[in-house]
């Protein structure tokens, strides 16, 4: 995948914004090694507000004008399915991808109902069909936290870990340290509580990714 720079801290991967941050301020992974559940103010130094990409979202999904809220619609759009769009699963990727450095964003799931998936994925995640190769968290190209009914799980490559938060999750924080291979999830509904950390050697730019069962999911603007 080719990448060019606009000189303003963003790289463009095939026309999609790829944000970079300065990885030299501290050693990779230092933040989580010293504090597995750090103060939210520490992570807000790396705050991002990724917007969602309408070219990737399933035809039954609807996107707000600011591209920060996606919700389930009653009817799908007509016409041919764009090549980048998920054609079977109610999934969507962000326009912004992260290829290096540290990044933190939050996801509001309080209107998402009984089922939702929040995570990150490579652009190589399959868009056609509903097989494991296309499902968020069920392959090597994606990582996610999932809620279904009253259960919470962390998923990657078909492997899952049960999570037991003290209360229902309304808002998640997601922290990525690309060089350190860290993708960490936090409950930021009230205070900050660590939920799960994936560790991997990332091979491609990562895109924030969502999947819906019903309702709506939003990405809040961070300071």
TrEMBL record:
One of its GO terms (cellular component) is cytoplasm. It comes from the Eukaryota. Keywords: Metal-binding, Zinc, Zinc-finger. GO terms for molecular function: zinc ion binding. InterPro entries: B30.2/SPRY, B30.2/SPRY_sf, Butyrophylin_SPRY, ConA-like_dom_sf, E3_ubiq-ligase_TRIM/RNF, PRY, SPRY_dom, SPRY_PRY_TRIM14. Residues 30-223 form the B30.2/SPRY domain. GO terms for biological process: innate immune response. Pfam families: PRY, SPRY. This is cDNA, FLJ79363, highly similar to Tripartite motif-containing protein 14. It comes from Homo sapiens.
């Amino acid at each position: 995948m080719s990448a060019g720079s606009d000189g303003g801290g963003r790289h463009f991967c095939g026309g999609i914004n790829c944000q970079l941050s300065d990885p030299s301020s501290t050693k990779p992974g230092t933040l989580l090694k010293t504090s597995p559940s750090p103060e939210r103010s520490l992570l807000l130094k790396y705050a991002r507000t990724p917007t969602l990409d309408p070219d990737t979202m399933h035809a039954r999904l609807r996107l707000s004008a600011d591209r920060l809220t996606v919700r389930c619609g009653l009817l799908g759009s007509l016409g041919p399915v764009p090549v980048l769009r998920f054609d079977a699963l109610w999934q969507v990727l962000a326009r912004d991808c992260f290829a290096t450095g540290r990044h933190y964003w939050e996801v509001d799931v309080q209107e998402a109902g009984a089922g939702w998936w929040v995570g990150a994925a490579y652009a190589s995640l399959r868009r056609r069909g509903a097989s494991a190769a296309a499902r968020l968290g069920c392959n090597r190209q994606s990582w996610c936290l999932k809620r279904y009914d009253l259960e919470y799980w962390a998923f990657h490559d078909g492997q899952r870990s049960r999570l037991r938060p003290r209360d229902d999750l309304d808002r998640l924080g997601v922290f990525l340290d690309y060089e350190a291979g860290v993708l960490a999830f936090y409950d930021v509904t009230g205070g900050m509580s660590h939920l799960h950390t994936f560790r991997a050697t990332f091979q491609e730019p990562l895109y924030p990714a969502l999947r819906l069962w019903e309702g709506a999911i939003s990405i809040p603007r961070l300071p």
